[in-house]
Amino acid sequence: MTDLSAFRPSRRAVLQSGAAGMALMAAGPQAFAQETPKRGGILSFAIAAEPPTYDLHGSQTFAVMQRVAPHYSTLLRYKGGAYPEIVGDLAESWTSAPDGLTHTFKLRSGVLFHDGTPMTSADVKASYERIRNPPKGVVSSRQASLGKVGSIETPDPQTVVFKMSAVSSSFIDEVAASPWNAIYSAARLEKDPAWPIRNVMGTGPFEFVEHVAGSHWVGKRFEKYFRQGYPFLDGFRAITMSPAATVNALVGKQIQAEFRGFSPAERDRLIKGMGADAKVQEGGWLLHQDISFNPKRKPFDDPRVRRALSLAIDRWSASRSLGRISVLRDIGGVMMPGGQWAATEAELEKLPGFGKDMAANRAEAKRLLKEAGAENLKIQLLNRAIEPYITAGIYLIDQWRQIGVTVENHDAETAAWYASIGGDNFDVVMDSYTDYTDDPTTGLPKFLSAEKWPIAAPKFNDPELDDLYARQGATNDKAERRKLVRAFEARTMEQAYTVPILWWRRIVVMQDAVKGWTMSPTHMLYQDLAEVWLA
Amino acid sequence: MTTLSQTALRPSPARRRWRDNPVVDFAVSQPLGVAGLVAVLAMVVAAVLADFIAPYDPVAIDFEAMLAPPSLAHPFGTDSFGRDILTRIMYGARTALTIGFISSFIGCTIGALIGLASAYYGGWRDMIVQRGIDLLLSFPIIVLALVVVAMVGRNRVGGIDVNLICAITVPIIPRAARVVRSAGLSIREMPYVDAARAAGYSSARIILRHMAPNVLGPYLILLTAYIAQAILLEASLSFLGLGVNEPTPAWGLMLSGNSANFYQTAPWMILFPGAAISLAVFGFNLVGDALRDWLDPRLKT
């Protein structure tokens, strides 16, 4: 399902890292397996943003995932040191019917929630029903991925059966292994479906201790965790700090890791400051920086205006220049560059906004704006006060200035940024989307209609896009699926409700003493920290 | 002997006429103040004439010139987006002065009115106001500004962030009120205030027409001193990401972001904006101190 060739540590990363880091990178998963884990210690790591919610079902941001994931379990998970191999987490085993319409999961016995109550199939059903059909007041960011689930049955406390209304070619990846699909307590949800938004209690390797807003989040080892011998750490402390402070804290050994990623300049500073203590890992990132236009506001209800603004962005120049100062680097369409579903360079160049002749692109953009009666356009850009959003914003404002568009920029904190999106209070919003596997079914919902993707920033209705998405997910013919993905991509760029600017390049630097953590092309995976240990 | 001594100490009539010009008198008696004034005027000229004298567009990106060191083409070098730092400092003066002056003016004016009213009424009303001021003064100025900006968020009107000005204004108010109240307490006891009371003038008229003009000296000193403070606060808030947003040129903002990553290889990215902030604060403080000394009659005897 996933093309791992698109994800590999770079030669530069290996050469630049310290000796211990190089040894680990060169040995890969073998080294992961060979080292003998040591028990104990508290892992301190940095997170650059505050969580707007504690609810994994309703979140898309690392600010939630990296803090909350250690407290929960999922049905399946990606195997440590062997991405993208899938193994059972709460599920002991699973089978899929030959027709692809039934998936049966056998659950482990003896799994306990942190409050001591046993986990059963009822909890799995309640959690998945909450994602499929979120009650009033609950946001579900993964609703679209469960669109083909017809019903969920629980014949006994240890068995869950997903009956599909249609075949989903990537069901196991998109549903069972999604790190967002945490299993909550059915009893707690029954009392209050919104309980997980402000409370934390799961079956994960760590119990929740405290969250002090703006300061830290603390977890301690759950002694009755169902995976025997795990976790190795006594606990973890996630500290809220800016990227600049994170660099200094890593160099000063006040923290041991940061899992999201650094810019090339930050990496170079870290290598210089940490010397042989630095473990550097680099690779592609299933994460694209994008912009969304609010079609409920004029003139963004006009596709010509949206397309003009996308056309004006010189992505090729951005890749060369922004790649030197930020994590924004790779040029791609709706699927990860270099991956098996990605457009080729020739295919990309045919899409609006990806042509290399910028003079022609800008002339066409101006023509479209004039045609739409939107010359001398003044717009407000809602941005997030975090890198690389700020860098991307500066670049965009300059690009749009070149076609006569004036931009008023507003860098908002994460919670305020989410609130503005939720309330449709924006003209244009700088956004991003991260996936956990290189599959169109999990990667494309960002571009769907609001009906299919309720938390989408732009609220629009485009049946053609939705249909192309549904059709690509229903076929097992790879060539046919690729064709449908290209058609989806073309439609996305033409309508330009949401368009990618650049894809991120992941650079993770941590203390070499942090072992057992797996680098992957997403900062949402391997964050339950069960296998992490300190040397 | 006495006559001779007095004659010797008295300036000659020509010199006295020359010193009667207040501008000349200020220049002669307060040379450091003049130096501060020169720095402030340079800043004002840069802010007002930036559109004409700045060599580049302050927001234009030029990746060909990314992180260029100081040269003839870019006297202060360029930042990580290739933007000319000299140009951004010139336009940054506009941001600093606008926010600094408006915040200081509003803060000092409101503070002065509160201080005067508190001094005039006295009694339990004065006590309540002063305890409120004590409460506000217990917060460090930057903390109070941070609290306000975090509470009210952002609200741009005509290109100016009104809430940022609010955040900077609020910490100035109690400080100005406390100083003006001290002056007001002695003015309240003056015979002309008693006369105004006896004539039946309203409290508002006595405060605004009879007391306010007599605290103009301390008010002007506060105004200049707090412009410096406001510029520093704006720079601090922008540095922390709570002030002015990119790509608006602002000195504090120029010290944040990518500057942290490149200050070792491109020190000009932080050197010149830092110097601009220091010079502006230094300039306004010198002017404020000089005004205080010049207006203080005790220092003239």
UniProtKB/TrEMBL annotation, chain A:
Transmembrane segments: none annotated. Pfam families: SBP_bac_5. Keywords: Signal. It comes from the Bacteria. Gene3D superfamilies: Dipeptide-binding Protein, Domain 3, Periplasmic binding protein-like II. It is found in: Periplasm. Its main location: periplasm. Residues 85-451 form the Solute-binding protein family domain. InterPro entries: Peptide/Ni-bd, SBP_5, SBP_5_dom, TAT_signal. The keyword Membrane does not apply. Residues 1-33 form the signal peptide. PROSITE patterns: TAT (PS51318). SUPFAM superfamilies: Periplasmic binding protein-like II. Belongs to the bacterial solute-binding protein 5 family. This is ABC transporter substrate-binding protein.
Automatic annotation (TrEMBL), chain B:
It is a multi-pass membrane protein. It is found in: Cell membrane. Belongs to the binding-protein-dependent transport system permease family. InterPro entries: BP-dependent_transpt_permease, MetI-like, MetI-like_sf, OppC_N. Pfam families: BPD_transp_1, OppC_N. Residues 93-288 form the ABC transmembrane type-1 domain. This is ABC transporter permease. The keyword Transferase does not apply. It comes from the Bacteria. Keywords: Cell membrane, Membrane, Peptide transport, Protein transport, Transmembrane, Transmembrane helix, Transport. PROSITE patterns: ABC_TM1. The keyword Transport applies. The chain crosses the membrane at residues 32-54, 96-121, 133-153, 219-245, 265-288. It comes from Bosea minatitlanensis.
